[in-house]
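Q: I'm writing up a methods section and want to include an example of the input and output format. Could you take the sequence below and give the corresponding predicted structure tokens, formatted cleanly so I can copy it straight into the document?
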Amino acid sequence: MDLHKKFILAIIIFLTLLFTGTFVYSFLEGWRYIDSAYFTIATVTTIGYGDIVPQTDMGKIFTMFFSFLGIGMVFYFFTLFGKYIYKKTFQNELKKHHDKLIKHIKLNAHKNYHLKKK
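A: Here is the clean output for your methods example:
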């Protein structure tokens, strides 16, 4: 799978993870959606302010599993994001410079070969 497709898939999984966390916390803890989304993002980004915490046993159990999955997914997402940005910007520039350098080497090698022959 090419990087573009992996990146799109990672975005879909990341958003699904955020929506799932938001809805599950809202259901289990009785929080408003904004509070659930806030806690979900604080958890998966490892910020963890501590101002909102699960109070129910099911909420705490869900958080234990959700944290491992969510934090791993966030790191994967940002890794792919970095690779994607690198490919889109720096790799094209490096290829241009590489091609220009190869052309220069070939041109000079050809000139030097003919000068040595004389």
